[in-house]
Amino acid sequence: SRKRMYGPNLIDVPVKPYVQMLFEEVLNPFYVFQAFSITLWLVDKYYFYAICIFIISIFSIGISLHEIRKVSLMTMFSVEECVSSEELVPGDCVIIPPEGLLLPCDAALLAGECLVNESMLTGESVPVLKTPLPTGDGGYSSETERRHTLFCGTHLILAKGGGASAVAVVTSTGFFTAKGSLVSSIMHPQPTDFRFYKDSAKFLLLLGFVAFMGTIYSIVLTCVQVTWWELVIRSLDLVTIAVPPALPAAITTGTIHAQRRLKKQGIFCVSPPRINICGKISLFCFDKTGTLTEEGLDVWGVMEGGAAGFSELVPDPSLLAPGPMLSGLACCHTVTLLQGQPLGDPLELKMVESTGWVRHYYALDSEFGGHRVLAVVKPLSQSTSTGQAVAIVRRFPFSSALQRMSVVTVAHGGHSALAFLKGSPEMVAGLCRAETVPQQFSSKLRSFSSEGLRVLALACKPVDERTDLGTIEREEVEKELQFLGFLMLKNLVKPESAGVINVLRLANLRSAMVTGDNILTAVNVAKTCGMVGVDEKVIFVNATPPTAQSMPTLEFSLEGDRATRLYQNGFDYHLAINGKSFAALCNHFPECLPKVLLRATVFARMAPDQKTQLVKELQKLNYRVGMCGDGANDCGALRAADVGVSLSEAEASVASPFTSKTEDISCVPLLIREGRCSLVTSFSLFRYMSLYSLIQFCSVLVLYTVRTTLADLQFLFCDLFVVTLLAIVMGRGGPSGELHPHRPSASLLALPVLGSLLLHTGMVVLGQLAALFITTSQDWSVERRAPRFDAQLFLSSRYVPLNSTVFGVANLPNMENTSVFSLSAFQYIIMAVVVTKGYPHKKPLFYNWIFLCLLIVLFALTTWLVLYPGPFAGHQLQLHNFLDMDFKMLLVAVAALNFLVCFLVEVSEDFIL
Fold first, then answer.
1. Quick one: signal sequence residues (predicted)?
2. Facing residues of 577 across strands?
């Protein structure tokens, strides 16, 4: 019945056959509109243009199908599984082999210990020790019981079950597992909520309205002289002109170029639309350890403490006299051995190494009173005997929510059972008997933390040997402890951090630190890397929840004194808050939360879910939030942020839009610069494609007025050889070398943008009308009828009046068409130059040498078509040959004037913005 309910244990990501993908792809609204347009052009006898667009569409569909299939194949993780693993269902008990395996399901560990590499999910290459699920009546959750859960897709390195094998119970299978959720997130990424994309859709509706108005104009103009069938064809043709089918594809070219440049810099992107969002980032959050600071830690010293106070600082723990403090440092960890090599958290590896003790993983249970032995440690000088050996018989791994870990140990023979606890000083002190905590606890902790040291506290207590140590509960172990002292570790700030923070600061981008470390240590690092200036103050936010005896409180203190002018103007102070105060602030003082978030720079002792909540709260304040981190506790925040940057190259990085190969934050300014460049390019391409449609739309309406239109090859020349080529290479060049203090606009519907488009369109219409009126007002024009192209007539330059009995291409060639077409060809090139902005977010135009060369070639070609078209070009494009060179130069002058006016309009828009 369970198999029928849950189905087979498969993460089935089928690779669709090309036929199915083709059917789904051609039903895309973009290609449906393409098919409609091609059909219309064939009916209207635009054969050459329709065939070329058909070939381009087939090529585009082929590329799209190839990319979709490639992504589908990449999404599937190649895993060789036993056939029986498909039969697993939740509730099954499985025996974990000692040599390990690749886990095919999520399972809760019931007995034994397992060493697991979870880099596929967390991004951390450090193996994690999994311990059995504690007994209790509470419900099970894989999120809250991560230390007791084996996740699908992770590599189980080693399993040990004492006298028996390790046993686990299946909790989830298929897409309901952690790996299945990751695969699902890849297949169905989080939708982007970005104003540029929203405005794009609205602007297309605006172009549709323009097409509707043009259709009404054409109907009123031609309804008496053409058949209804021709009227319908003309009206629908205007729709395909005013709303360009290639617009959605064109605006992505800037993003594609940016993605390629980022890849060359070692930054990989799995969500290209996020690149444009990088250009609007206003606040960037950084994890501390491994992101702003070095990953590795060095032991700085040990200071024992008790009821009588603290002893002298001991720089090397191996110099400590034998006792509980030295034993606690040697035992309270999850370091394990694999083929003789110690594996575990780098901090714990440093701690164990500093004691001078060695670790033996295997030992007989009988040597230690029959207790199930997990590991054995002993002083290096006693490595050949077991006289001073200590066995770890129970282990409660570190929990970021609890901020501590603990172990239970016994001496040789099963005597002297002791429990050791290690964790954040505040948490450890709260679990110790008050009389054992030195009075100087707070002052010493503040002193060490202010120096930027990572401080851990240790405690211990004896355990009754009659207690069943194999089943003792964590709550029983972690209470009524005796305080032992501090372990200090030095964590250096990465040399690149200060420079990057300064770059962001000069660009008016806020930086914030979100860490699980002590608040004083975090403030010290913030000052070291430049988040907090040397002349700026730090105000600590202290919020407490209500109790039976008191109301919730909210205080702001500056070095122990209450701050009075909290919300003064200027940025000469920063707020710092820890996780407990953040939770109390959200729950009991929500009206103060926005004010705190607007000025807070340091968020310390933050749990993983609090990091995610912080990102979402900042987004509610209209911040575009970036997050940079490298650990498992950052994954939620990386996914919630508008732009997440992972400094880990593990497979879990696919859950983050961006992954950097460089293990420092130098990638952040580069990413923002590329984002701004891509956004400006997408903005320019959208405006260019819109103006291209409006130019062609105006040309057709102007020529409709005199009962003619553009020829098939004239459409082809403008659309493919001018506009398409310019749009493809417009996004090249690259970003500016510096971050400007002002971010680029992302609103297409802003008044300056709409105003400039309206003015550009007005200049386009005036230019084309000027070309038409100048042509018809020439003295050398004579009346003559010739509805079709004639070589002798072409060479005679005599004016050919339009045939009033026919419409459209039947009236070609003619002088009106040639003049309007020639000027519109110049206008396509003019607008490409006008809307291609460089400063301050892109390199100047001459850096994009391919685009510059293409502009020169197209300008030369268009000038040649106007001045010296020749019989072949005139015949193919159905152009009229003007022999009056003064008139031809006048057309070029009109185009130059058109460029000058449009350029001035664009400059005035930049000034307004």
1. none
2. 541, 603
CA pair distance 585, 599, nearest whole angstrom: 14
Identify the CATH number of the domain defined by range 267-293+493-661: 3.40.50.1000
Q: Which CATH architecture has domain 85-187?
A: Distorted Sandwich (2.70)
End-to-end CA distance of the chain: 66
Residue showing tokens 């250096």: 492
Name the DSSP class of 293.
B
pLDDT digits (tens, 9 = 90+) for 358-381: 776 666 777 787 788 888 888 876
Higher pLDDT, residue 636 or 571: 636
Contact of 455 with 449, CB cutoff 8 Å: yes
Structure confidence at residue 221 (pLDDT): 66
Residue of 280, 275, 279, 277 whose CA lies nearest to 257: 275
Mean pLDDT to the nearest integer, 199-226: 73
859 CB burial (10 A radius; 0-12, 13-18, 19+): middle
Nearest alpha-carbon partner for 728 in 264, 265, 246: 246
Q: Decide which of 58 and 103 is more confident.
A: 103
Radius of gyration of the chain from Cα atoms? 36
Half-sphere exposure of 473 (CA within 13 A, CB side): 6
pLDDT of residue 223: 58
Domain spanning 298-490: CATH 3.40.1110.10: yes
Residues 360 and 375: beta-carbon distance below 8 Å: yes
Q: Would you state the CATH architecture of domain 246-262+672-738+750-912?
A: Up-down Bundle (1.20)
Residues contacting residue 877 through CB under 8 Å, at least 6 positions apart: 711, 713, 714, 717, 821, 865, 869
pLDDT, residue 81, reads: 40
pTM for the full model? 0.73
| Helix, strand, coil percent values for the chain (each to nearest 5) | 50, 20, 35
Residue 601 Ramachandran class (φ > 0 left, ψ -120 to 50 alpha, else beta): alpha
- Provide the sign of the torsion angle of the four alpha carbons 347, 490, 605, 551, taken in this order: positive
Q: How far apart are CA 664 and CA 97, in angstroms?
A: 39
Between residues 162 and 779, the one the model is more confident about:
779
Identify the CA nearest to 180 among candidates 193, 192, 191, 171.
Answer: 171
- For 445, residues 6+ apart whose C-beta sits below 8 A from its C-beta are 425, 426, 455, 486, 518, 520
CA-to-CA separations, 46 to 38, 42, 70, 120, 575, in angstroms, rounded: 9, 6, 36, 55, 67
For residues 603 and 580, the answer to whether their CB atoms sit within 8 Å is no
Task: Respond yes or no: is residue 287 known to be catalytic.
Answer: yes
Q: Compute the distance between CA of residue 154 and CA of residue 901 in angstroms, rounded to an integer.
A: 63
C-alpha to C-alpha distances, 574 to 420, 536, 568, 579, 604, nearest whole angstrom: 38, 7, 11, 17, 14
Residue with tokens 């109301």: 551
Q: What is the pLDDT of residues 808-840, one digit of tens each?
A: 677 778 888 889 999 999 999 999 999 887 778
Q: Which of 237, 287, 642, 719 is catalytic?
A: 287
Compute the distance between CA of residue 528 and CA of residue 539 in angstroms, rounded to an integer.
Answer: 17
CA distances from 719 to 52, 244, 247, 411, 767 (A): 10, 10, 12, 85, 20
Instruction: Name the DSSP letter for residue 452.
Output: T
The domain ranges of the chain are 12-75, 85-187, 246-262+672-738+750-912, 267-293+493-661, 298-490
State the Cα–Cα distance between residues 174 and 7, nearest whole angstrom: 9
Average pLDDT over residues 145-172: 80
**DSSP β-ladder status, 625-629 and 600-604:** unpaired
784 pLDDT exceeds 60? Answer: no
- Of the two residues 346 and 806, the one the predictor is more confident about is 346
What would the mean pLDDT of 751-772 be, rounded to a whole number?
A: 87
E strand map for 36-89 = none
